[in-house]
Each structure stands twice: as structure tokens, then as C-alpha cells.
């Protein structure tokens, strides 16, 4: 090398540029590697989260399948078992390994059940099967009746992959049905007892009015019978005199006023018959009211039923309570006159209680036709119903009366009676003041009878 050679500036610059370029490339490489590393870390974190969620879902599914009391069988399109749950293992007494890969039809105990399931697997596996009772082969060769449901299963693209069979031993269903039936019967007995209790309460409210109603004709009959007894003694004395001493008979006839007795006898007998008939009518009305005619469905006129309810309740309340009726001549309905009389009496009695203590308390009962129903309004001039109580007015045991003066069952039972008659019972506050209860019932056609 020539030591005297001069340095070349271009070579120095080129060398420096090359070194700088190589360093820049390595920096880019390191930066890219760092980015890839962070992406791998994020992907690993996301993958771990998804795996955790997947394990949690699998544990949830396993816990559900394990806790199921119903049997569960998953089959492919050929009817080969792919999966089962512990309930089926408990019934059959077989292991999961023994059942997986076996034919579905081999689970059944009798030929009829196997044939029925074979038909479903062979040609109708894509069709659902509901509540089909078949016999499974249980432990110790015991046949277990099971109600089965078969539903096809599909993959994400809609292709049918097989079927899912679920079932419940019929013994459990029968026990559940028996328990439900027993509960229903107890509820019916309780409802009947409540109805009877309210009816007895209604009868108790009638005692004062009915006692007065019966006392008049009975007193009339008793007075006539006493007079007849006295007359019979005189007639007996006169007849004895006629048979033994005919000469004194005319005189004795005048003294005993036999002619007056003979004239008075027809009216006494007629009055006695009338009093007895009035007593019989009152008793018949009570029998119609108190009869347990829950399922009675006869055609009758509602107008006399309402009139009778007003008459009896009015007898047991103060004279300051007045009732006015604005009803048509006839309201033909179908059902139980005794039960609807109980409803009418309850509404009249509630109106009387609402206006108790105020002067000029009154109840106005009117009727109006609404399509094929008749609506009967019971409008009193009391203080009305508080807005908070309106939604609960027909709830059982709800009452605003003091303790001992109301059971809270009257309106609830009346509501149920009206519903069973195909009608409706509503309560509201009238725009003119007071409360109004509306009884709506379907009316039946009045038969036209031609005179012969």
C-alpha cells in the first residue's frame, strides 16, 4: 500500500451509509418480531378465555344431564346410541360404555315396543314423536313403562344428524297426577265449605225478617184454631142436647149461638188455609235458597228472585233503608235461582250496610238490555268505595266492615257464582255518588205459547 495515497471521501461515505442501512433493517426486524410476540400473547390469552368458557359450558351441560330425572338418549341417523345420561343408566343398570354404540331398539323390553321404535328409526326418524308409552328393559329384566318423546337434531347448516329421545317413567307421571288430583279435590272441598259458610251467614241475616214473616201467618192460624176449638165444644154440647132432649134444642141453639158459629166457620177455615199457604210459601223459599243446587241449570224468572231478596233483607234492617225497583215484567235466565238469590241478597245487604247510620239511605235497582245480556244495577246513595279498595273488592277475605260483622267472602263467592252462570259482576263508584254493583247475565228467549 502506498502510504502516501490520499484518503477517498466517497468510500468513507459509502461505508458509513452501508452500516447505517444494515442497522435500520435490523431495527425493523426486531420491531416486527416484537409485534408478532405481542399478537401471540393476546391470542393465547383469548384462547385460554375461550377454553375456560368452553369448559364451564361443558360442566354446566354435564351437571344438567346428571341432575335430570328424565332419561336422555342421543342417536345418529341409523338409530345407534351416541350418548346417554345417568338416569337411563340407573333404570337399565348398564354402563355408559355398554350402551354407547348399541342399537336404540335393543333398549326395549317387549316386541311391540321394539317394533314401534324400529318403525320410527327406519322411516320416520326425522318426524317428532310425542308421549309414546313404551316399555324399557330395566334392572333384573323388569319392564319399566316410559313416556317417550323423539325430536330430530340438526347441525349448523340444517342437515339432520339424528334424534334426541327423552322420556319419563310413567310411574312418576301417575304419582304426579294423583297428587294434582288430590290437591284439586281438596280445593273443591274447601271452595264448597266457603260457599256453605257464606250461605249460612246469609241465612243468619235472614233470621229476623223470616221470623217476622212466619210469625204473622202462624199467629193467624193459631188464633183461628183456638176459635175453632171453642166452636167445636159448643157444637158438641148442642148436638148432645139434640140427641137426648130435643125440646130444649132450639133454646140451647140460641144460647150457644150455633147459627153465628155456622156463619163464621167458612171464614175461619179459609183464613186458616190462607195462613198455612203463606207459611208454606215462606218455607219453600227458604228451601230453594238453602238447597245445595250447585249444578242446577233450569230456566227461571229473575225478577221474583230479586223481589224476594229485597223483601227478606228489608225485614232485618232499619225502616230508614228504602229500596226502589225499576225492573221489567220478566227476566228469563238459566241457572240456579237459589244461588242467584244469594247474590242478590248479598248485594242488597251490602247496600244496607253502606248507608247504615245515615238518614234517607236508599238503594235503586234497575235493569237495562245489553245485546244478549241483561245488566242489573244496584246503586246505593252511600259514601261509595275508596279508590284503593276497588281493585280488591272481590278478593276473598277482603272486608272493610268491623271484626265480627263480615267474613270477607260474600262478594268473592257472589263473583264466582255469577261467573259460573256465564255472567259478570262489577263494582264502581256512580257519577251521581254512591256505589253501583252491576250484575250482568245472559238472557234466554221467552217461549211463545199459542193459546189453544
Write a structural description.
- By secondary structure, this protein is α+β, with helices and mostly antiparallel strands.
- Among the domains are: 35 residues; 108 residues, PAS domain (Beta-Lactamase); 155 residues, Histidine kinase-like ATPase, C-terminal domain (Heat Shock Protein 90).
- 53% of the residues lie in helices and 19% in strands.
- The protein contains ten helices and twelve strands.
- The protein has a five-stranded antiparallel beta sheet.
- A hairpin with a 5-residue loop joins strand 3 and strand 4.
- The longest helix has 75 residues.
- It is elongated and about 185 Å long.
At the first level of CATH, the class of one domain is: Alpha Beta
Helical content class: 40-55%
The arrangement of helices and strands along the chain is HEEHHHEEEHHHEHEEHEEHEE
Radius of gyration over all CA atoms, rounded: 47 Å
Strand neighbour order, sheet with most strands:
2-1-5-4-3
| CATH architecture verdict of one domain | 2-Layer Sandwich
Mean pLDDT equals 77
Count of helix runs: 10
Straight-line N-to-C gap: 159 Å
Stretches where pLDDT is under 50 for at least 5 consecutive residues are none
The coarse overall form would be elongated
At the fourth CATH level, what is the homologous superfamily of one domain?
A: Histidine kinase-like ATPase, C-terminal domain
What's the story with the biggest beta sheet? 5 strands, antiparallel
CATH topology of one domain: Heat Shock Protein 90
As a percent range, the share of strand residues is 15-25%
Strand count: 12
Report the structural category. alpha+beta
